[in-house]
């Protein structure tokens, strides 16, 4: 019987919960926005709104694209929660800065290694 309430095995998906709808057994959103991702979905919902998320998901051509899109939507929502001013851009900036600092540290370590090797070869 198509369109029944969900079975006891699965909690309502994040999208249906946010929309206060009954999550049907054949709910397509449950695949991409499971109950475990409720917090992430709420962040995405605040950023995009459920109608926009639904429109974006309908624009995907296949299952793989829908999966990647859902993941991107959830990550973008989380990014704006973590950095409300710059969102994902701010997170990327911070990561690039950390990489640059690690490279500087690594270069310093390489120089120290060279100096120790040089001392060792000279027998000092």
TrEMBL record:
It comes from the Eukaryota. InterPro entries: LOB. Residues 11-113 form the LOB domain. Belongs to the LOB domain-containing protein family. This is LOB domain-containing protein.
């Amino acid at each position: 019987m198509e369109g029944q309430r969900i079975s006891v095995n699965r909690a309502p998906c994040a999208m249906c919960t946010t929309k206060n709808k009954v999550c049907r057994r054949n709910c397509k959103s449950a695949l991409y926005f499971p109950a475990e991702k409720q917090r992430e979905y709420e962040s995405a919902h605040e950023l995009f709104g459920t109608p926009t998320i639904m429109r974006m998901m309908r624009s995907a051509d296949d299952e793989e694209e829908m999966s990647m899109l859902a993941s991107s939507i959830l990550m973008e929502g989380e990014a704006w929660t973590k950095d409300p001013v710059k969102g994902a851009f701010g997170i990327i900036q911070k990561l690039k800065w950390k990489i640059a600092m690690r490279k500087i540290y690594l270069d310093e370590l390489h120089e120290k290694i060279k100096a120790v090797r040089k001392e060792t070869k000279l027998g000092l």
